[in-house]
Specification:
mainly beta
Length: about 170
């Protein structure tokens, strides 16, 4: 009976050490995550998703991401986004393109059935120039091939989000 108890204690200690190691390895670096559910799963080009953030200092680098959840109604293999970082002193504007499907038409990202979630890298190891509050915003700039004007509405976009994580200095 004592051997069984020692074996159980040994297993419990190993399990506890493994669990603590898992917790340490999975430290959450997320500083901010804000998502917006898109009304009727149709993203209008004037519907800007934004969040405000106040950097603690100018030393800490951050990784900035956009989160897009789409379903099978999304009609394109890629997505174009207009991203802005603004404060009282400056404005950074980027036009970005991300693949949403592979060459065979299979959705990229994670998820089940027809709902996919893509965490799209916006800026890696980005350092804010000062500690003024900033607004980070994103809107779509999707258009059909050969068209000059962008699509007014894009179906199949369920959620749009902005994620800020601490990067390693």
């Amino acid at each position: 009976m004592a051997i069984t108890t020692k074996m159980e204690i040994k297993r419990l200690v190993i399990l506890l050490i493994s669990f603590l190691g898992f917790l340490t390895a999975c430290q959450n670096k997320t500083v901010l995550q804000q998502t917006k559910d898109i009304n009727q799963n149709v993203w209008h080009r004037d519907s800007i998703v934004s969040t405000q953030f106040k950097p603690a200092d100018t030393v800490q680098p951050y990784n900035l991401f956009f989160l897009i959840r789409n379903d099978n109604r999304y009609p394109y293999a890629n997505i174009f986004l207009i991203a802005k970082i603004t404060n009282d002193r400056e404005e950074i504007i980027d036009t970005l393109e991300y693949a949403m499907a592979d060459e065979k038409g299979n959705w990229l990202g994670s998820g089940i059935w027809d709902l996919k979630e893509s965490k799209l890298v916006y800026k890696k190891n980005f350092k804010f120039k000062d500690t003024l509050p900033v607004t980070i915003s994103v809107s779509h700039a999707v258009r059909k091939p050969g068209q000059i004007l962008g699509d007014e509405e894009v179906p199949g976009i369920k959620t749009v989000g902005i994620i800020i994580e601490k990067a390693q200095p």
